[in-house]
Write a structure and sequence with these properties.
mainly beta, about 120 residues, four-stranded antiparallel beta sheet
């Protein structure tokens, strides 16, 4: 199994930005797909953004135009750039890798998960 470690969450005011890295324990170019999920207090975990090995990206409607997912193959790191943050973006953000067969890009069927990093947006 690939180990995933998220970091650089934090507290920002509305309109601010954050960049979340997720370091993987193995070569990410061997992974078909990686994604970011988030879970707000009292809500279910939801898919935010996904990227496949060929660079195809998928975004949740709620974050299109405000968040960008990317990979750095040299550093084995997945990133999520969060811009124009709003209080409703508050939650624990998780990195995921290697979806099970027939899992949609933003579906929950990923085999490997990180421990998460907290993002808090104040108004």
């Amino acid at each position: 199994q690939v180990q995933l470690v998220e970091s650089w969450g934090g507290s920002v005011q509305a309109g601010g930005s954050l960049r979340l890295p997720c370091e993987a324990s193995e070569w990410i170019d061997a992974l078909y797909c990686m994604a970011w999920f988030r879970q707000a207090p009292g809500k279910e975990r939801e898919g935010v953004a996904a990227i496949t090995r060929d660079g195809t990206t998928t975004y949740a409607d709620s974050v299109k135009g405000r968040m960008t997912i990317s990979m750095n193959y040299n550093l084995n790191t997945l990133y999520l750039q969060l811009d124009s943050l709003q209080p409703e973006d508050t939650g624990m953000y998780y990195c995921a890798a290697d979806p099970a067969r027939r899992t949609p890009p933003l579906g929950p069927g990923y085999r490997n998960w990180g421990q998460g990093t907290q993002v808090t947006v104040s108004s």
